[in-house]
């Protein structure tokens, strides 16, 4: 066990960390904080939800000089939502010290960002395109930056942001510290990354598997056409607190969200074609619990830390093992438990094995639940409700009506009617879903995916730059 005391942090940092409720350092924090404090370049790889943000955030905040008004550090993240989340976490770590952290991302009014940039933030957290935009407008100057962090580095390089990142780094003094963090770091991507770094220390938290052990992992072999009914049955049986359903494409996400609503669930989709305001409002509603199901594409959910996500459903099997790791990692965070269920069509079994081989973890086979099973579990839930109502509520007001009813009907029929009314019967409203092509070959796919992801993250109105 490593406590934060052992890092020799300043009292302000110690206070902030304890205010955040952190008692001991997670393994990646224990391994990388001392290195970062010594200004070493670090590639940090550790499982999802194990505190990589604070692993780079704590030393970063510690090194901010409050007597210097210049931008001293920059964190680059692949999506706007993640940039916002990371800036919030850094803000908390720096709250006692009063470090100024500013998120800048595409889709937000640039004039507003320019005004905010004039207020001398110490740390910028941004997406690659918008950061570069500000550098080119000279509204952001990086000549005093001593630390650069690339969060989800593999994703950004994968998405074709290499040149953007290189362009950003060319504006940062070479005498700097560069930190890279992700739960996945495929070898070829790591080699590209090392181009930006000086003699980096590769820190991999030793784990038998790429995924955390507290996520139960299942797969269901199923025909494409039967996926949706099976999903709704699972939702009825498992009644997740908050669930994320992953679809392969934006169209898929839209159709799934609509279909779920048709069947009476509160679901909304999130992907790169939605406006920034819409994406943020969907996420906020999900965090507050006013929607129960978030339907998302891979990119939209990378790195997101939402407490209360108990279930992840891969409606479509992920394109590659890395996506799988990040998708299911939206649950089982910070030591909590979670469940992940992956749908796989018979033709995609090869892809399933490829994922299992890479993550070094077998998924357990689950039988698709039947309609009767779904009905039974809803009925059990109804009975539960009835029993708690008896336990917790004063029923005297209703007892007269009950006695009158009992004079005319037998008690079993009456109770049965109550249970029926409380049971959410599986809804079979017909829905329209366009079929997705199965995932088969591995190599060709990565290029397609790369292109698609780039268009997704850039979103609307982003400048097109020629790559490769
Ligand atoms: N030392 C700690 N003790 C308790 N909770 C912590 C600690 N460090 C971080 N956390 C909490 O754990 C959660 C997950 O952290 P974080 O988002 O940094 O994970 P991550 O490793 O970056 O995951 P991902 O790979 O999905 O991006 C956050 O809510 C964070 O506040
Ligand atoms: Mg993270």
Automatic annotation (TrEMBL):
One of its GO terms (cellular component) is cytosol. Residues 442-452 have a biased composition (Basic residues). Residues 438-468 are annotated as: Disordered. Belongs to the DEAD box helicase family. CshA subfamily. Residues 214-374 form the Helicase C-terminal domain. One of its GO terms (molecular function) is RNA strand annealing activity. Residues 33-203 form the Helicase ATP-binding domain. This is DEAD-box ATP-dependent RNA helicase CshA. Keywords: ATP-binding, Cytoplasm, Helicase, Hydrolase, Nucleotide-binding, RNA-binding, Stress response. Gene3D superfamilies: P-loop containing nucleotide triphosphate hydrolases. It is found in: Cytoplasm. Oligomerizes, may be a member of the RNA degradosome. Its EC number is 3.6.4.13. One of its GO terms (biological process) is response to cold.
């Amino acid at each position: 066990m490593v406590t934060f005391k052992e890092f020799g942090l300043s009292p302000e940092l110690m206070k902030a960390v304890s205010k955040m409720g952190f008692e001991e350092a997670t393994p990646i924090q224990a391994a990388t904080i001392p290195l970062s404090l010594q200004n070493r370049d670090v590639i940090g790889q550790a499982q999802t939800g194990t505190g990589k943000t604070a692993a780079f955030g704590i030393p970063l905040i510690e090194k901010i000089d409050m007597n210097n008004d210049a931008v001293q550090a920059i964190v680059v993240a692949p999506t706007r939502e993640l940039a916002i989340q990371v800036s919030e976490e850094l803000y908390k770590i720096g709250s006692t010290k009063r470090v100024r952290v500013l998120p800048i991302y595409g889709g937000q009014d640039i004039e507003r960002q320019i005004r905010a940039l004039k207020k001398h933030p110490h740390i910028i957290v941004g997406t690659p395109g918008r950061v570069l935009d500000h550098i080119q407008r000279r509204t952001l100057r990086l000549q005093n930056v001593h630390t650069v962090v690339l969060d989800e580095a593999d994703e950004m390089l994968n998405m074709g942001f290499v040149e953007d990142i290189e362009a950003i780094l060319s504006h940062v003094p070479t005498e700097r510290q560069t930190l890279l963090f992700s739960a996945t770091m495929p070898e070829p991507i790591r080699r590209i990354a090392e181009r930006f770094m000086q003699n980096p220390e590769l820190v991999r938290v030793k784990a038998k598997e790429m995924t955390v052990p507290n996520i139960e992992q299942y797969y269901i072999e199923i025909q494409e056409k039967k996926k949706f009914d099976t999903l709704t049955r699972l939702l009825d049986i498992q009644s997740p607190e908050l669930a994320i359903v992953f679809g392969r494409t934006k169209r898929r996400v839209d159709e799934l969200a609509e279909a779920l609503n048709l069947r009476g669930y509160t679901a909304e989709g999130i992907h790169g074609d939605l406006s920034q305001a819409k994406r943020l409002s969907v996420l906020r509603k999900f965090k507050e619990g006013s929607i129960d199901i978030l339907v998302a594409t891979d990119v939209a959910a990378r790195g997101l830390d939402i407490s209360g996500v108990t279930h992840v459903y891969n409606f479509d099997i992920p394109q590659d093992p890395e996506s799988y790791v990040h998708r299911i990692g939206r649950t089982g965070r910070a030591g909590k438990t979670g469940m992940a269920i992956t749908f796989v069509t018979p033709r995609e079994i090869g892809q399933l094995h490829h994922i299992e081989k890479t993550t070094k973890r077998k998924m357990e086979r689950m039988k698709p639940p039947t309609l009767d099973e779904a009905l039974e579990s809803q009925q059990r839930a109804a009975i539960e409700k009835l029993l708690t109502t008896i336990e917790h509520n004063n029923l005297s007001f209703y007892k007269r009506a009950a006695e009158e009813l009992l004079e005319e009907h037998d008690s079993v029929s009456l109770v049965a009617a109550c249970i029926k009314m409380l049971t959410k019967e599986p809804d079979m409203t017909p829905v329209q879903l366009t079929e997705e092509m199965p995932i088969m070959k591995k190599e060709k796919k990565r290029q397609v995916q790369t292109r698609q992801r780039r268009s997704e993250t850039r979103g609307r109105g982003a400048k097109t730059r020629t790559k490769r």
